[in-house]
Design goal:
Layout (H helix, E strand, L loop, with lengths): L46 E2 L6 E6 L16 E5 L17 E4 L14 H4 L9 E3 L2 E5 L5 E6 L3 E7 L20 E5 L10 E5 L6 E7 L8 E10 L3 E8 L2 E3 L4 E4 L11 E7 L6 E9 L3 H11 L5 H16 L2 E4 L5 H13 L5 E2 L14 E2 L4 H4 L3 H8 L1 H18 L6 E2 L2 E2 L8 H10 L8 H13 L13 H6 L19 H21 L3 H10 L7 E10 L8 E10 L39 H4 L7 H7 L2 H14 L11 H5 L7 H11 L19 H11 L1 E3 L6 E3 L6 E5 L6 E7 L9 E7 L2 E2 L4 E2 L2 H5 L1 E8 L21
Parallel strand pairs: 28-32
Antiparallel strand pairs: 1-2, 2-3, 4-9, 5-6, 6-7, 7-8, 8-17, 9-16, 10-11, 10-15, 11-12, 12-17, 13-14, 13-16, 18-27, 19-20, 21-22, 23-24, 25-26, 26-31, 27-28, 29-30, 29-32
The protein binds 2-acetamido-2-deoxy-beta-D-glucopyranose (12 copies).
The site of one 2-acetamido-2-deoxy-beta-D-glucopyranose has 3 residues, from loops.
């Protein structure tokens, strides 16, 4: 495994900080990692580097909230572990090899210490949890205060034992001798370990081990390795433990499934210490997917001297560098909005995770990123935001996606822990690749293979399209839609979601057409452009929609008044029926998940999916009865309770008013959701964060230019600040969006006129060149909707009007 030196390194220059930020501004004052750590947000609030592999935090035992390890609730803490995913909706992810420290064992008998997760689970002390980029800390009722910081593959914990230890008491009030014990557990958050082994070195106290675990939203299994060293005092004794018994011999053990205990019995190893003079013990844990030796090597190389403050400063510097490219003038803006903005940006750079040099599946000199969890969520806003803030990382991600195609035969739609994750709709890596292709993500990218990869999605059906590619390709090519009763002997997957798969496949094909055009392959461009019109084939023009009211006149069934929706369609060409409101918050909201009895739309209603024609909004608007009817319908989607902003398909409809010549309404609905659904409270996001998707939504919305993913198009709305600037890490040039007549109470959110570098600008959208070439986009705001951006020539491009 090699960490390649990037031949393109020369292009990625570092540029100095511009000076518009006030002198005393510290971005960390506006980053709260605890946002979204309760009520299903599943945010990981622990210590990590940007896109780092080591992600350390305290793990709680609340099964509904421990997806990201920690939760801001009253649940107990079972240990500290070194790898996590953030914001995910599957079962809890990673959290392997937790350790748990104890001040001593009652009566100095190791069997009186607490071993299993159940036995050792301890309350946190309220108010002690602290989190900043690169740092996390909490005190438990064991009176031990644990702090952690990280490098790329190593976590460094600083444990502070109670100084009044002679009076520390065990749970049953007997005196506790001061002889700290640290156990490691061969487990993970979802208790998925099958095979495992662990050993402890009696001289150094080093504990290392290996386990085989299951991914949290995918197939297969993965092996992970760790290596823990200690510093601060001398070793007193070492040993292993199984179930709730421990001994100092032997010094190693291994486990396999026994056929009866599921999950397998808890097991691990321990090291006991003499009392540390300064009451502190440092615990350094390296991780690796390759081997124990590499886990130890990672730890020794990255943190040779156990210098906590030095590691923490390096982590902080790494984060500050990422934020430095953006400057806001926040005059008059509340701390609340300011914090939502930077915290969302922070969460957008937690994943995907850089596992370069850690991929045991194939040998390659290309980068390897993982935790694309999932692209169905991240293509809409996370990757477009990373492309702006950190195009170098986006380039490495694109290269890694293409390398996954090279070695596994398909691009992933979801991937975690070296395993294939479940596909939710289309093959949306196609959209990520097109987005990057159009935005000058070029350094070291083999776009010939990249194009081959997206064409493979469009043309070659895999045997198991539950985890890659697309199903129903024969029907897709012959009939132009995914029949609800499809006959598909070529491959298997969940035969549900025929409507949402159809509209996503159509958009994926459109993105392929854009790439084909860019690569000069006009025949393909034409072919895929044609296929991008397939959304029409599931549109049933005379379909009406009744809705049951859940807000005003509760229970009352009303005719929504809108006609024409996407509907199930059979092989024989006739339409079936799915209530257009099914799986909206108004009707059986949770009936469209990824399970065998799901319906024809995925995690949302036909009402919502009927708007998913990003390639040709002009035709959609005509189909739905013209701009006025379209605008009314889209407003109704937002105000009737039919749309849940906590799922990513809801993002684009906030801004689609632009296509009907009503950019003012996009601004209005952006403010409708922010801050009502997004704020700085612990449950301050809607839905799961999904690796930062909700964070990227708020940050991009507040920056004022909403990216249409897969296109070189940003829809213009006013930033939530007097001004926002981005210095392109690619070109070193600065693009500034400035509001004139900025109103911090957000009454004046309507654009009256715009200039770009002093010239009148009437189009309601702009291309990526603005970010690359720099310049000043000046928006003059007022309290009422204006004529700006409403003319036919001002609208964003649609395929039917020639893109
Ligand atoms: C700690 O905070 C939780 C809420 O997170 C609360 O339920 C609990 O009562 C508090 N405990 C103490 C000891 O104050
Ligand atoms: C306290 O608990 C330990 C086990 O944790 C037990 O060995 C000891 O006998 C108990 N002491 C008393 C006084 O109950
Ligand atoms: C710490 O918390 C655990 C779990 O709630 C509880 O069982 C234990 O008694 C507490 N210990 C002390 C010293 O309060
Ligand atoms: C972490 O890894 C990245 C990518 O290899 C590298 O650029 C960065 O310098 C590393 N960070 C630290 C703090 O070592
Ligand atoms: C030990 O000191 C800590 C911090 O001063 C205090 O919170 C705790 O109650 C003390 N514990 C005992 C058993 O006295
Ligand atoms: C423990 O380590 C020894 C020496 O490396 C090895 O022979 C033995 O198989 C190991 N035992 C277990 C249970 O893994
Ligand atoms: C990678 O290369 C090494 C050294 O040549 C070899 O030992 C290893 O088996 C290769 N791994 C894979 C997955 O091909
Ligand atoms: C596109 O990126 C390359 C480096 O990858 C750079 O040399 C070039 O200037 C960029 N083009 C623009 C328009 O910024
Ligand atoms: C429900 O009733 C309220 C108040 O009468 C109304 O504003 C809302 O649009 C209605 N919702 C639907 C789905 O008709
Ligand atoms: C078409 O197929 C559907 C589903 O099998 C069936 O219910 C319907 O009757 C068929 N229609 C015609 C006209 O054959
Ligand atoms: C809606 O949910 C109810 C209750 O779970 C169930 O009985 C019904 O079949 C569902 N309807 C549909 C169309 O899924
Ligand atoms: C547009 O809306 C009006 C008023 O609701 C309705 O009468 C008309 O039929 C709609 N037009 C189309 C083409 O749907």
């Amino acid at each position: 495994m090699f960490r390649p030196l990037l031949s393109s390194g020369l292009f990625w220059l570092c540029f100095g900080t511009a000076s518009s930020q006030p002198r005393n501004f510290d971005v960390f004052d506006y980053i709260d990692p605890f946002i979204g750590t309760t009520a299903g947000g599943h945010v990981f609030p622990g210590a990590t580097l940007p896109f780092g592999m080591a992600k350390a935090v305290a793990d709680v035992n609340n099964p509904d909230e421990k997806q990201g390890g920690f939760a801001s609730d009253n649940s107990d803490i079972t240990g500290f572990s070194h790898m996590h995913d953030s914001g995910t909706g599957g079962s809890p992810s990673l959290g392997n090899f937790p350790f748990f420290p104890q001040t001593g064992c009652p009566e100095d008998n190791i069997n009186n210490c607490y071993w299993t997760k159940t036995d050792r689970a301890s309350r946190r002390i309220n108010g002690t949890a602290e989190a900043h980029p690169g740092y996390f800390a909490v005190s438990l009722n064991t009176s031990i205060h644990t702090e952690v910081t990280v490098t790329n593959h190593t976590a460094l914990y600083r444990l502070t034992f109670p100084s009044n230890v002679s009076t520390t008491i065990a749970r049953n009030q007997t005196a506790l001798p001061y002889s700290p014990l640290i156990l490691f557990d061969l487990t993970d958050l979802p208790d998925s370990r099958t095979i495992g082994s662990i050993q402890v070195d009696p001289q150094s106290g080093r504990i290392s081990g290996t386990g085989t675990f299951s991914p949290s939203f995918g197939i297969g299994s993965y092996d992970l390795h760790f290596c823990a060293d200690f510093k601060g005092t001398s070793i007193r004794d070492t040993g292993v433990w199984r179930n709730n018994r421990a001994g100092s011999e032997p010094k190693n053990l291994s486990t396999r499934p026994d056929g009866v205990n599921n999950p397998p019995l808890p097991a691990g190893a321990w090291t006991q210490f003499t009392a540390p003079k300064n009451n502190q013990i440092l615990t350094r844990v390296g991780v690796s997917f390759v081997s124990v030796a590499q886990a130890c090597h990672n730890a020794e190389r990255e943190i040779p001297d156990f210098d906590f403050q030095k590691v923490r400063s390096a982590a902080e510097d790494a984060w500050r560098k990422k934020f430095e490219v953006v400057k806001v003038d926040a005059t008059g803006v509340s701390d609340e909005f300011h914090t939502v903005f930077w915290s969302g940006m922070y969460r957008s750079m937690i994943s995907p995770q850089d596992y370069t040099g850690e991929n045991p599946l194939w040998n390659s000199t290309e980068p390897y990123y993982d935790s694309y969890y999932c692209i169905w969520d991240s293509y809409r806003s996370i990757h477009p935001l990373i492309t702006l803030l950190d195009p170098h990382s986006q380039t490495l991600m694109v290269r890694s996606l293409i390398d996954i195609y090279r070695h596994e035969g398909k691009l992933p739609d979801c991937r975690m822990s070296l395993c294939k994750g479940f596909t939710q709709g289309g093959s949306n890596a196609d959209t990520v690749l097109a987005d990057s292709y159009l935005k000058n993500i070029t350094a070291g990218v083999d776009w010939r293979i990249g194009y081959e990869a997206v064409v493979s999605d469009a043309e070659v059906e895999p045997e198991n399209w539950s985890v890659e590619g697309r199903g129903g390709l024969k029907s897709w090519k012959n009939l132009g839609y995914i029949p609800t009763d499809d006959y598909d002997p070529s491959g298997g997957g969940p035969f549900t979601r025929s409507i949402s798969r159809t509209v996503e496949y159509a958009y994926n094909d459109f993105c392929i057409a854009l790439m084909a055009k860019g690569l000069g392959n006009m025949a393909d461009a034409e072919k895929y452009l044609k296929r991008s019109e397939n959304w029409r084939n599931m549109y049933k023009a005379d379909q009406t929609s009744l809705a049951t009211n859940t807000t005003g006149h509760i229970g009352e069934t009303v005719d929504t008044g809108y006609i024409g929706f996407l509907q199930p369609r059979y092989l024989n060409g006739t339409f079936g029926f799915q209530d257009p409101t099914l799986c909206s918050p108004l009707y059986n909201f949770t009936s469209c998940y990824l399970n065998p009895d799901g319906h024809e739309t995925y995690e949302g209603s036909s009402w919502m999916y009927t708007f998913y024609v990003p390639q040709d909004m002009d035709s959609l608007i005509t189909t739905l009865g013209g701009p006025e009817n379209f605008t009314n319908r889209l407003s109704y989607l937002h105000t009737s309770g039919l749309l849940y902003i906590g799922d990513e398909q809801a993002f684009l409809p906030v801004f689609q008013f632009h296509y009907a010549g009503r950019p003012a309404l996009s601004a209005e609905f952006s403010h409708f959701y922010i801050p009502s659904q997004f704020n700085t409270s612990l449950n301050g996001i809607a839905g799961n964060d999904d690796s930062g998707a909700m964070g990227s939504f708020t940050t991009l919305a507040m920056m004022g230019l909403w990216p249409v993913p897969g296109q070189n198009v940003y829809l213009i709305t006013p930033p939530y600040f007097p001004s926002v600037s981005l210095t392109s890490p690619q070109t070193g040039k600065t693009a500034t969006i400035r509001n004139v007549n900025f109103d911090p109470s957000y009454g004046a959110i309507y654009i009256q006129s715009v200039t770009l570098d002093g010239e009148m600008y009437t189009r309601n959208w702009i291309t990526h060149d603005f970010w690359l070439e720099g310049g000043v986009l000046e928006l003059t705001l007022g309290r009422n909707e204006s004529e700006w951006g409403t003319g036919m020539g001002d609208l964003p491009p649609s395929s039917s009007t020639g893109m």
